[in-house]
Amino acid sequence: MEKVAIFGSGRVGETTAQLLAEQELCREVVLVDVREDVPQGVALDVAQTAPFFGFDTRVQGSNDPEAISGADLVVVTAGLPRKPGMSRSDVLQVNVEILDGIVADVKRFAPDSILLVVSNPVDVLTYRAWQLTGWDRGRVLGQAGVLDSSRMASFLAMETGFSARDITTIVLGGHGDTMVPLARYCTINGIPVSHFVSSERMEEIIERTRNGGAEILALRKLSSAYDAPGAAVATMVDAISHDRRRLLPCVALLQGEYGEQDLAMGVPCVLAKGGLEKVVELALNEQEARQFAASVAAVRADIARLI
Ligand SMILES: NC(=O)c1ccc[n+]([C@@H]2O[C@H](COP(=O)([O-])OP(=O)(O)OC[C@H]3O[C@@H](n4cnc5c(N)ncnc54)[C@H](O)[C@@H]3O)[C@@H](O)[C@H]2O)c1
C-alpha cells in the first residue's frame, strides 16, 4: 500500500502510526489532528525511530485534512476516549459529530480509500460511516474483535502458561459489555482450550475479557488502552495491505448474515486487498445465539440514538 492516513494523533493514532511505519505496511503515513502542531510533533517523533527500526516509510503530520489526498486507507482514531466510570456509549454524541466531519473529508479527498473506524462506540460509528459514505460495505469496517480476542488470548496465556502465539480466540458482537467471546472456538495449537482450563475458570476469563478495556482504564486512570488497540489496527492494515485473506473478527455491516441487517457489529470476516471480502457465518449454539441477540439489541439501541 502506498499511503495510509490516520485521523487523530492521540494515543491510539500515534501507536498505530509507529507500528505501520516500523512494519513498513505502507510507504507513507499521514497523521491529521485538529490540535495545532501536535500531529506534526507526533510525526517527527515517530519518524525519528527509523534509524532504530530501519524503515523507509515517510511519516508526516498536518492540521489540514487535504493532506489525506490519495490515501489508500484511512484510519479514524479521532474523538474523545471514555473516562473511568463511563461506558463507550457515553461518548457517542460528541464522537458522532467528529466522525461526520471526518467522513465528509474522506469522501472529498480520499474517495477511493478503505475506511477503518476505531473511535468509540465503534459499532455505531462504523454504521454511521457506512451510511454517510454510501460505499460498498467492503470498504467501511471497524476494529474491535481483533483487540478483544487478543485480550482473551493474553488472559489464557497467563492462565495456562502457554505461549500466546499458540492461542487462538475469537470474540464477536458489539464492542462493549455484551461482546460474545466464543469459548467453544478457542484452541491452544489446535487443542480445545477446555482440555486445559475448567469451565469455571473460563467463565472468569470471559468476564475479564468483557471488562478488558475498563480494567485498563481504571488502572491507568488518565488514559484508556492504546498499545494493544494500535497493534490490533496494524494487524488489520497488514492483512489488507498484503492481501493476506486473514480471517479476523471485524466490525462489519451485516446484510442478512446472522439473521441481521442494517447494523454493524463484530463478526468473523475475510480481510484482503479490497478491505472486507466476506463475512463468515458460524452456527451459534443456543447460549451463544442468546448472547449475540443481546449484543445486537445493545448496538441497535445506540444506533437508534443517531436519528
Ligand atoms: N475500537 C477500539 O478497540 C478502541 C480501542 C481504544 C480506543 N478507542 C477509541 O479511539 C479513540 C481515540 O482514543 P485515544 O486514546 O487515542 O484518544 P486521545 O484523546 O489520545 O486522541 C484523540 C485525538 O483525536 C483528536 N481529534 C479530535 N477531533 C478531531 C478531528 N475532527 N480531526 C482530527 N483529530 C481530532 C484529538 O485532538 C486527539 O488528539 C477514542 O474514541 C477511544 O474510545 C477504540
Could you explain the architecture of this structure?
The protein has 307 residues and is an alpha/beta fold. The chain contains ten helices and 14 strands. The strands form four sheets. The chain has a six-stranded parallel β-sheet with strand order 3-2-1-4-5-6, sandwiched between helices. The protein has a three-stranded antiparallel β-sheet with strand order 7-10-11, covered by helices on one side. A hairpin with a 2-residue loop joins strand 10 (187-188) and strand 11. Helix 1 runs parallel beside helix 2, helix 4 (92-109) packs parallel to helix 5 and helix 5 (122-133) packs across helix 10 (286-304). 48% of the residues are buried. The model has no long low-confidence stretch (mean pLDDT 96). Nicotinamide-adenine-dinucleotide is lined by residues 7-13, 32-35, 77-82, 95, 98, 101-102, 118-120, 122, 143-144, 147, 175, 224-226, 229. The site of nicotinamide-adenine-dinucleotide has 33 residues, from helix 1 and helix 4.
Bound molecules: nicotinamide-adenine-dinucleotide
Largest sheet: 6 strands, parallel
Low-confidence stretches: none
Spatial sequence of strands, sheet with the most strands: 3-2-1-4-5-6
The outline comes out as globular
Series of H and E elements: EHEHHEEHEHEHEEEEEHHHEEEH
| Percent in helix | 40-55%
